[in-house]
Each structure stands twice: as C-alpha cells, then as structure tokens.
Amino acid sequence: MIGNRFVQHLKFLLVENNPTDQIAVQRFFNDQNWGHDLDVASSYRQALRLLSKKSYDIVLLDYNLGDGTGLELLSKIHDTPVIFISGSSTELIIVEAMKEGAYDFLIKDHNQNLLPSTIEKVVRRKIAEDRLKKYLAELERSNEELSSFAFVASHDLNEPLRKIVGFGERLKNKTENLDPEISVYASKMQESAARMQNMIQELLQYSLVSAKGDPFRSIDLNKVVKEVLEDLEVSIRNSNSSVQIESLPTVEADPTQMRQLFQNLISNAIKFKKKEEAPKIELVAKPCKKDLWDIFVKDNGIGFDSQHDSSIFQPFFRLHGRNEYDGSGIGLAICKKIVDRHHGKIKAVSSKNEGSIFQVTLPTKQVS
After folding, report:
1. For the segment 2-18, what is each residue's pLDDT rounded down to a tens digit?
2. CB burial of residue 360 (10 Å; 0-12, 13-18, 19+)
3. Degrees (nearest 5) of the Cα angle 56, 59, 61?
4. Which of 112, 236, 264, 295 sits at a 20 to 30 Å CA gap from 79?
C-alpha cells in the first residue's frame, strides 16, 4: 500500500484516448482516497494544451493517442515524471520511451496493479532528483563565491608583497656606502617576497581548478603534448632532454587543464634529473578497462622513496630544499585536482635514483 504522504495533493495528468481505460484508471484513483487531482486528456493536442496551462507532478501516458503518439508527446515533456503505459506487444516502444526519459512503464492488462508502487517509486525518485538539483545549485553558488574570494584574496595579498619588493629595490639602491649586509638582507627580502607571490598565484590556480574549468570537449592529447613541448623548448634544449611520445588517445577533457597537467609532469621530469645523466622522458598510453586509458609519463631522474608516493600530491609537500630545486611544491597537487575533476586517477611509482613513472587514468568520455 502506497504511503499517503507520497501522493498527498499531487496533480496527475492521464493521457489516454480509450474511454474504457480512462474509466478504469479514474475508478482506481477514486478508490485510493489520496486527496489528489486527476485531469484527463483524450488526445495529443488536448494534452499539450493542459501541459501549457498547468504543472503536473506525474503524467500517465499511453502510446496511442489518435492524433499523435505518446513518444511524440514525451519528447515535449520536461522536468515532469512520466509513467509510460502501453500494450503487452510493444516492448520496443517501451524501450524507446525509457530512452526518451520516461521514469517507468506499465503494460496494460498485465501489471496495472503495480500502479501504486510505481507511483511511489517515481515520487521518491523525483524528490531525490529535486534534492540533487538543489545541492548542485548550492555547490555552483559556493564555487562562484570561492572563485570571487580567491581572486580578491590573491589581489589583497599580492599588494603588500609588491610594496615589499619595491621598497627592497629602493633600499638596495641606497646602500652603496652602507654596510654590505644591508644589501644582502634586502635581496633576501625580495627573494622571499617573490616566492610568496609565486605561492599565492599557484594556490589561486589550485583553488580554481574545479570552480573555473572550461567545458569538456573532445581533444587529441598528441596535439596537447606537442604544444607543451613547444612551450618547454628552452628547458628541454638547456637540459639536453629527450622526449619520446607514443600515440596518445583522444579524450573528452578541458584542453587548458590537460595542457597544465602534462606541462607539470614533463617539467618535473626535466627538473628532477640526475646530475650526470641527461633526462629521458617517455609518454606511453594503453587502454585498460572499457572507455579508460592509462597514460604513463616515465623518466630516468632522481626518483623518490616509495613511502612518499601519496604525499607528493599534497599541496606544498616538498622532498627537497629550495636550495636544491626551486618551486612551491603545489604542481603535483594541481595535477591531482585536474585528474579528479576529469573523473580519473593519478599515481606515482618510484625508487631513489631509479626514475619515476606517473600513471594518469582518464575516461574516454565524461559522464554528463
């Protein structure tokens, strides 16, 4: 027995051109004592008129409507749950109805007694969907607020740092006849301020990966990596690096973020090289599960202890001091956040002095 709380004050529209079936459904509803409203449309056109004038909680829709079909009407119904009703020999039509967005279906003369439980199931689903829409709207608003806050915070934090750098430069220009230590202190002050500016900028990028990403579209990762290598041309030449690329897949992704992802990974492979050996970097892609690709970025660099294979993706985590390698320690954290936004996974396998392998798993298509 369906709970009254699920159908109390609900508005139903029955679209049925068979008078006998109309009467049967009306009698059923009258026997339920639900306190509901039930309108009846006998044709496609009449149903369209009613739908344009009133909003309904559930539509009970037959396939044969005389001046149209239930599938044609279903394509014009949006945001209203539809229970599709058809004859026992029309399974293919029912499949099409479900593809068009019907919430559920009933077959005449076979499972009409399931109407109460079907209605309850549909109402439960609609309530859950409405809650999800509300949650997503709140999440979008929260992301917009986060984006605005991040920009404002970045500007407000950078302003005093710019003044520190500027005053430091003035101080250095006036220290010709003063203690040389003052010039050293001024230089260190400027370097620290510059590092802080860089950290703020990278933290801003990290916070905006999810909030300010571009729409997903089909992109060729071969083209993305080629553009990255062009951007890194100077670093590659100066470090005598070699980069080998096997065929990479085409995936649905944010082009800008894919470029940032591979630029961070390849830059790290160049940066963390062995002193006595030129960097050798290899990009390989392999299909794994259905509609998933594993993309490996391999290098022959200094590697790291395997106990840090998860920690390296945390913001500001560093394995080396600033005197050894520059950077803020947020590059891999940005990589992980980008991959997370693309419903993928990233992990690293490495040993000290044995190079590193970063494995990025991405879906071919994004779930809409």
Report:
1. 444 555 578 899 999 88
2. buried
3. 155
4. 112
Greatest distance between any 2 Cα atoms in the chain: 107
Q: Name residues whose C-beta falls within 8 Å of residue 296's C-beta, 6 or more positions apart in sequence.
A: 282, 283, 284, 285, 286, 357, 358, 359, 360
Q: Of 330, 339, 310, which Cα lies nearest the Cα of 203? A: 330
Query: How crowded is residue 188: how many other Cβ atoms within 10 Å of its Cβ?
Result: 11
Cβ-based neighbour number of residue 202 at 10 Å:
19
Of 196, 58, 198, 207, whose CA–CA distance to 143 is shortest?
207
Contact 25, 39 (CB under 8 A): no
pLDDT in tens, 14-70: 999 889 888 888 888 887 777 778 899 999 999 999 999 988 988 999 988 889 888
12 phi and psi, to 5 degrees? -110, 145
Write the burial class of residue 271 (CB in 10 Å: 0-12 exposed, 13-18 middle, 19+ buried).
Answer: middle
What's the pLDDT tens digit per position in 115-147? 777 877 888 888 888 888 888 888 777 766 666
Of the two residues 318 and 368, the one the predictor is more confident about is: 318
- Which letter, b or e, does each residue of 47-86 get, where b requires 16 or more Cβ atoms within 10 Å of its Cβ? bbebbeeeebbbbbbbbebeebbbbebbeebeebbbbbbb
Give the C-alpha separation, 170 to 147, whole Å. Answer: 35
Six token digits for residue 271: 């940066």
How far apart, in whole angstroms, are the C-alpha atoms of residue 222 and residue 246?
9
Token match 């309108």: residue? 39
Q: Count of H helices and E strands in the chain?
A: 11, 12
What single string gives the DSSP state of each residue in 282-343? Answer: EEEEEE-STTEEEEEEEE-S----GGGTTGGGSTT--SS-TTTS-S-S-HHHHHHHHHHHTT
73: left (phi over 0), alpha (psi -120 to 50) or beta: alpha
